[in-house]
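Example record

The entry below shows one chain as it appears in the dataset: sequence first, then structure tokens.
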Amino acid sequence: MAERIAISVTVSGLSRLFGDDLSRVVELARSADAAGIAQIALPDHLAIGPRTDRYPYGRFPYRNDEPWLEPLVTLAALASATRRIRLATAVLVAPLRPALLLAKTLATLDVLSRGRLDLGVGIGWQAEEFAGAGVPFAGRAARLDDTLRACRVLWSGAPASFDSPTLRFEELWSLPRPVQPGGIPIWFGVALGERNVRRIAELGAGWMPIGAGPAELADGVRRLHDALRAVGRDPAELRVRAPAPAVRGASGGIDLEATLHRLEELRVAGATHASFALDRFVRDASEIEPFLERLGAYTRE
């Protein structure tokens, strides 16, 4: 039998699950680590503006006053509380952060976690969030590319120099470097237009599709494999984290067992990881522990 798909859990819906005690995410990470979950992921927003109706993936699922922990700070805390589980962002709005600071923060986190960091990135969708950070909303895709290329340069050599239309530096020493060979794996949370296919082929270790069914997923994986071959990379190295299909039972609630049964469809389509958004599958904090234990058991069955 083929190896089961790996399980990733995204920490979402903090206010409903943890109320005012958001530090309980550290306990959650310990439980996920003990259960055998492969990866825990943190989403990212520096702020939420009033125009959530502009969310490009349907209805925005959270209130404006929902808390969002800063993911890299939080992952540092989770790194100290865990030993095995991989630590991810899903996704970090990378163009909001200066490249030099981002490279140093990520490298530090990779060192302190002993090489367990996965960097999931996106370009962001809120103009207000960029305005509040003093960063132009226009041109953010190009700044994403330049930021990630600059990070790779800073991680790979010293002194490091970089020159692009949006960013330039000369002969900088930025240490420590990440401990993972080749630097920190970069996963892209993007739709697969031609530009994004090229972006992943050049810079990416993984793809995080949004709302893709098995047929769309399989087509995207095929396109990415072709693009990787074209630039001399091994398609077998591509990682794909797809949302778990939340199957509803007769009562209207999510049927976890039926959902787990559907994960094989994702694996056959090319996904290496199935992503479970925590607040979509549990109603309150009392359900978290058995939920994680069941996910961990699934991977061992």
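Notes for this example: The domain at 6-144+178-300 is CATH 3.20.20.30 (TIM Barrel). The longest helix spans residues 140-156.
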